Predict the 3D structure of the following.
Amino acid sequence: MTDHARRRLLQWAGLTTVAAAAALAGCAKKEEPPAPAAQAPAAAPAPAPEALKVAWVYVGPIGDAGWTYAHDQGRKAVEAEFGDKVKTSYVEKVPEGADAERVIRDLAAQGNKIIFATSFGFMEPMVKVAAEFPDVKFEHATGYKTSANMNVYDIKLYQDAYVSGVLAGGMTKTNTIGFVGTFPIPEVLRNINAFSLGAQSVNPKVKTKVVWINTWFDPPKESDAAQSLVNGGADVLLQNTDSSAVLQTAEKNGKYAFGWDSDMSAVAPKAHLASNVVHWGPYYIKAVKDVLDGTWKGNQRTIWGAKEGTTEVVKMNEAIPEAVRKKAEEAEAGLKAGTLSPFTGPLSDNTGKERLASGQVAEQDWLDKVDFYVKGVEGKVPAGN
C-alpha cells in the first residue's frame, strides 16, 4: 500500500472516530422529557349544612285572619330571615288534649329540632313530650310551665285591649260594650278587664257584658255570642276568639267591633274600629337563631308587648273623633314607653274587693293569677278557671 493510500485510510478512520464520539456525546447530553406530574384528585365540595327542621302546632285553621294566621305569618318571617338554613312545617286544626300530644310527639320523632305549640291547652301535652325528647327544643305559647328543654313565650295582648277600650269608651252610645270570651283563664280575663278599664278611663259610665263560648274557634258560636251581646244593648264588641265572626256580626247589626290578632279591616270596614295586631315574627326569629347559634336555653319565660314592637293597634276608623283617637294614641305611646300600665291601683273587682292598692302596678305574678272581673264588668267569672 502506498504512503498516500495509507494516509487516506487513517484520515477516514479518524473522521469516523470523531463522528462516533460526537454522536455519543450528543446522546449523552440529550435529556428525557420529565414525566407528567400526577394529578391530585379534585376536592369534593363541602356538604351543605343540614337545614334546621322547625315545626308549629296550630289550634285552628290558618285562614286569612286571626290567631293562627298571625302565628303562621311569624313562621313565614322565619323562612324569610333564614332561607335554606331552615325547613319549616306546621299542623293546623289540632284539638287540645290527646290529639295535641300525638301531633307534638310525631313532629319530634320526624327530626324537628324546635317545636312551637301555639295554644294554652297544648301546655300539658308538650310538657309530657318534652320529657321524652331531651334533645329537642320545645316552645309553648301563653302557658307557664317550663323545663330544661321547654320555654314559654307570650304577648301582652291586654295592652291592645286597653287601647281598644279607650276607643270603645269614646264611641259607645249605649254606655254598654261587649266581649266574647273563650275560656275563663287569666289570659282572657286580663283582656276583658283591660278592655273595660280602657273604656272607663274616658267614660266612667261604661259597663261591660261578657258571653263565654268555651272554644277558641267556632264562627257560628262566635256569631251567636256577638248577637246576644248586641241584643243586650252592647254597641261596641271585642273578642278573644280566632275568627272574624264577631266583627261581621257587628256590621250586620250596624254596630262597631275590632279585629283581633291580625288586621281585619277589610272584613267589615263599616264596623271595624281598629285591629289589635300581634307580630310573632320577632320572637320566632330570636328562638330559631338561638338554636342555630347553639345559645338556646331552657326554663325561660318571655313576655313581650308594645315596648318590643310585638303588639299594635292599627287601622283606626275615620269615624273616630279626633279627641278620642288622640287619647287612644296617647295610651299606646305610654304602653310603648313603659310609663302606662293598664293595671295600676287603686283597683277593685266588681264585688268591691280591693285587688291593687293605690299606686301599685301589677307584677307578672299578679297578672298570672287574675281570676276576677274588674268593677264595671257584669256577672261572675264561670267556675272551672
